[in-house]
Design a protein that fits this description.
By secondary structure, the chain is α/β, with parallel strands linked by helices. Among the domains are: 4-330, Rossmann fold (3-Layer(aba) Sandwich); 337-405, Orthogonal Bundle (Helicase, Ruva Protein, domain 3). 48% of the residues lie in helices and 14% in strands. It is built from 26 helices and 21 strands.
C-alpha cells in the first residue's frame, strides 16, 4: 500500500516510536524509508548577531567581531550536523538490520517549512511523525511541527500519540470514522489494508447529532420578541425533528455503516459497527477512551466540507488533539461500488431532477445517495417521483409524514404517557410504535420495553417528580435525584446546555419523565467524571452540610437551590425578584451575609438587607454615570431607580452598538434597581 515512508526524527520518545512503526510498515510493504532531521543553524546565527552588542569591549572590533562570527557559525553548523547525523545513523542502522531501503535527509531552516518543502513533489505517500518532540512540556497536547505538517501536508499523515509502557500489551483494534463521504470510505479501505497486514480488528463508528437544533433554540428563546417566537414556531420545529428528522438521520448514518460493512466483507474482513448520537468528535474520543484502540483512521475532511478544502475538518482537528492513541489522517478517496454502480446505471427523469434541486445544498449529497441506494436495491433503472417518495417513506415513514402536515394545527400526543415505549438495545432509538419487532434504523430485533409504571416506581424511589415546561411548551417531569445530579455542575451555562441535551434525549426516546439514571450519561459526558449522588429515597438520606438542595419554586417553576435553610417568608421574598441574573446575584449577596454572620438559616430580615445592599450598589453606579439622573425628582432615595427611561441612554446605546434588539420599557428586560427598588410598605402585598 505504501511505497515511500517519510519520517522526521529528533530522538524523542514519540519520534523513536514513529521510527519503529515506519520500520514495521517498511518491511510489510517493501517500502523505502526516508529519515529527515532539520537543524536551525541559521536561527542560531541570527540570534548571535542580535546579542553581539552585549559582548565585552575588547570584542567590539570589526576584525575580532568577524572572527567570532566565523567561529560561532562553524561550531554551531558543525555541531548541529553532528547531532543530525547521530539521529539518522540510528535509524539507518535499524533499516540495515531489517533489510529495508533507507535514505537520510538533513536540512537547515525552520522545521515544518523544510519538512513540507521536502515532501512536495516527492514520491512519499506516508508521513509518520511524533505528536511531541524534545521540546514537549507537561501540558503539551501536540507539537507545533507536528500540527503544521498534519494540517498542511497533502499526503497521508500518521501521528504517533501513544508510546507504550514497558510490558504493555499491543492494542488490537483500528477505529474508523464513517460519515458517508468518499474521504471516510477511503479511510476505511486504508484501515482494512492495515488490519490485514498487521492482524488487527476493524471497528467503524458513525455519529449523528440530533441535539444541536434543540440546544440552539433553547438558547435563543429568551431573547426573541413574542412576534419573532411565533415566526420560529418552536413547538412545530421540535415535533418535526422528533418525528422525522432525528430518526431519518439515524437511518442514514446506519446505512453508511452497512455500506462500510459490505465493502469490508468484499475485502475479506469482518468489522464491528457502532452508531452513536451526539457531537461527532466528542463521541469518538469518548468511545476511544473506553475501548483503547491501536489507531484511529479518519479522512482529512468530512461530508459537509467543500471538495476543494485543503485544511483539516473541525472534527478531525479536535480528534487529532484529544486522542490518546495514534491517529492516521487519510487522503484516499473511495466511492462505494454500490454508489458508483447506481450513478452509472440509473437515470433520473426531468421531474425527479427538478425535485432534487429543491433540496438544501448541505444535505443534497446525502439525499441523492439515499435515493440511488434504494433504487439499486429495488431494481429501478430510472428514478421517478414515485421512487423519491418511496425513499422518503423509508427515512420519513408515512405516519410521521402525515403528522408533519398537521404540525401547524396540533402536536402529536406523547406516547410515553399512554403506553409502553420500545427501545432498541442495539442503537438506542425508540420505536415509533410499542411492541415493535424490528428496529427501523439498525434492523435489530432485541428491544427493551419501558412502561409508565416502571418510570413511576423509579421516580418515587428518587424523591418524587416535579413537572417543568420546556421552552416550546412541552411538559417534562424531573425526579428530585435527577435535579440534584444537574446541580452538581456549578457553571450555569454548562448546566443549561446539559439540561437541554437531557430534555432532547427524553423527547427522542418518547419519555416524559427524567430520572437520575437517564440524566447520568449526559451529565458524566459533559463533566468527564463519574456522578456520585445519594438517592433521595435512601433511608435517612438528607442534604448534608454544604450540599445544594431545592428550597422552593416560583410560579414559573424556576427553582431556588441553596446550601442554606430558608424561612418560608424569606424564600417567598427572593422568588419575587425576576429569575435569572438578577435573582442569582441577589441570592449570592444574601448567602454571603449569612456566611459572614454564621447563620445556617436565612430569614426575611437577611433577605431584605441583601436587597438593600444591591439597591445601593446599583444606585451608586447609576449616579456615577453622566446625565443618568438629570431631570430626576430631588426627593426620594434613588430617583433614577423609579424611572426606567433614565437608564435608557446608556443601555440602549450599548445594546444598539452590539446590534441587539432593544425592547420597549416595561418588557421582560428589567434592571436590578427597577425590579428591587419598589417601596415595600407594611401591608403592601403586591408582587414585584
Amino acid at each position: 500500500m505504501y511505497k515511500s515512508i517519510y519520517v522526521p526524527v529528533d530522538n524523542s520518545d514519540h519520534s523513536n516510536r514513529a521510527v519503529a512503526w515506519s520500520l514495521a510498515m517498511g518491511k510489510a510493504y517493501s517500502a523505502k524509508l526516508v529519515g529527515c532531521h532539520v537543524y536551525a543553524a541559521k536561527l542560531h546565527d541570527y540570534r548571535f548577531r542580535q546579542m553581539e552588542y552585549t559582548l565585552p569591549e575588547e570584542y567590539i572590533d570589526e576584525v575580532e567581531l568577524e572572527r567570532q562570527r566565523k567561529i560561532h557559525d562553524s561550531l554551531i553548523t558543525m555541531g548541529l550536523k553532528l547531532i543530525s547525523d547521530s539521529y539518522l545513523d540510528g535509524m539507518s542502522r535499524q533499516c540495515r538490520e531489517s533489510n529495508v531501503e533507507f535514505e537520510a535527509r538533513m536540512m537547515d531552516g525552520k522545521h515544518h517549512v523544510e519538512i513540507l518543502k521536502d515532501i512536495v513533489g516527492s514520491p512519499h505517500d506516508l508521513v509518520v511523525i511524533g505528536a511531541l518532540g524534545i521540546g514537549r512540556a507537561r501540558d503539551s497536547v501536540i507539537g507545533s511541527v507536528c500540527e503544521r505538517v498534519a494540517r498542511q501536508s497533502d499526503r497521508d499523515v500518521w501521528v504517533v500519540k501513544h508510546v507504550p509502557e514497558p510490558g504493555e500489551a499491543e492494542r488490537d483494534t483500528i477505529l474508523v470514522g464513517v460519515d458517508g463521504s468518499p474521504q471516510s470510505f477511503g479511510a476505511l479501505m486504508t484501515a482494512i489494508d492495515l488490519a490485514r497486514t498487521f492482524d488487527k480488528k476493524v471497528e467503524t463508528i458513525a455519529v449523528y447529532d440530533p441535539y444541536l437544533h434543540y440546544s440552539v433554540f433553547n438558547g435563543i428563546v429568551n431573547v426573541l420578541t413574542e412576534q419573532a417566537a411565533k415566526v420560529f414556531r418552536f413547538e412545530e420545529q421540535n415535533q418535526l425533528h422528533e418525528e422525522i428528522i432525528d430518526t431519518g438521520l439515524a437511518q442514514i448514518y446506519q446505512s453508511h455503516l452497512e455500506v462500510a460493512e459490505r465493502m469490508a466483507n468484499e475485502a475479506g474482513v469482518e468489522i464491528k459497527k457502532t452508531l452513536l448520537d451526539g457531537k461527532p468528535f466528542q463521541k469518538i474520543i469518548d468511545h476511544a477512551r473506553k475501548t483503547n484502540p491501536f489507531l484511529i483512521v479518519l479522512g482529512r475532511i468530512g461530508v459537509h466540507s467543500p471538495k476543494d478544502e485543503t485544511a483539516l475538518g473541525s472534527n478531525v482537528e479536535n480528534i487529532l488533539r484529544a486522542a490518546t492513541c495514534d491517529v492516521l489522517l487519510s487522503t484516499r478517496l473511495e466511492v462505494p461500488t454500490v454508489d458508483v454502480r447506481a450513478e452509472e446505471t440509473i437515470r433520473w427523469t426531468p421531474e425527479a431532477e427538478a425535485r432534487m434541486k429543491n433540496v438544501p445544498e448541505q444535505v443534497k449529497g446525502i439525499a441523492r445517495t439515499g435515493v440511488l441506494r434504494l433504487a439499486l436495491e429495488k431494481g429501478h433503472s430510472v428514478i421517478t417521483n414515485a421512487v423519491i417518495d418511496e425513499a422518503m417513506d423509508r427515512f420519513m415513514p408515512k405516519s410521521a409524514s402525515a403528522a408533519t402536515k398537521a404540525l401547524a394545527e396540533a402536536v402529536a400526543l406523547e406516547r410515553a404517557k399512554s403506553g409502553p415505549v420500545s427501545m432498541c438495545k442495539s442503537c438506542g432509538v425508540a420505536a415509533t410504535q410499542s411492541g415493535a419487532v424490528k428496529c427501523t434504523v439498525c434492523g435489530a430485533t432485541d428491544f427493551e420495553v419501558i412502561s409508565p409504571e416502571m418510570i413511576e416506581k423509579i421516580a418515587a424511589a428518587e424523591g418524587g417528580l416535579e413537572e417543568e415546561t420546556t421552552y416550546d411548551g412541552r411538559k417534562l417531569r424531573w425526579s428530585e435525584d435527577a435535579r440534584k445530579g444537574l446541580w452538581t455542575m456549578k457553571n450555569a451555562y454548562q448546566r443549561r446546555r446539559v439540561k437541554a441535551r437531557v430534555e432532547k434525549r427524553a423527547r427522542m426516546t418518547k419519555l416524559d419523565t427524567i430520572t437520575l439514571e437517564f440524566a447520568r450519561q449526559v451529565i458524566e459526558e459533559e463533566t468527564g467524571t463519574p456522578l456520585e449522588i445519594q438517592s433521595a429515597s435512601a433511608p435517612g438520606a438528607s442534604p448534608s452540610a454544604g450540599e445544594a438542595r431545592l428550597v422552593a419554586r416560583d410560579d414559573k417553576k424556576n427553582p431556588l437551590i441553596s446550601t442554606f435553610e430558608w424561612a418560608p417568608d424569606a424564600a417567598a421574598r427572593i422568588l419575587r425578584v425576576p429569575a435569572g441574573f438578577m435573582r442569582s446575584k441577589t441570592q449570592e449577596r444574601i448567602e454571603e451575609l449569612a456566611r459572614e454572620r454564621g447563620a445556617s438559616t436565612i430569614v426575611l430580615a437577611l433577605v431584605e438587607e441583601g436587597i438593600e445592599i444591591g439597591k445601593k450598589i446599583m444606585a451608586e453606579v447609576i449616579a456615577a454615570y453622566p446625565g443618568a439622573t438629570k431631570g430626576a425628582p430631588a426627593a426620594g432615595p434613588h430617583p433614577a431607580a423609579h424611572d426606567p427611561a433614565a437608564l435608557q441612554p446608556r443601555n440602549i446605546a450599548d445594546a444598539q452598538s452590539r446590534g441587539q434588539v432593544v425592547p420597549a420599557v416595561g418588557s421582560g428586560y428589567l434592571n436590578e434597581v427597577s425590579s428591587l427598588s419598589v417601596p415595600h410598605k407594611p401591608g403592601d402585598h403586591r408582587e414585584h
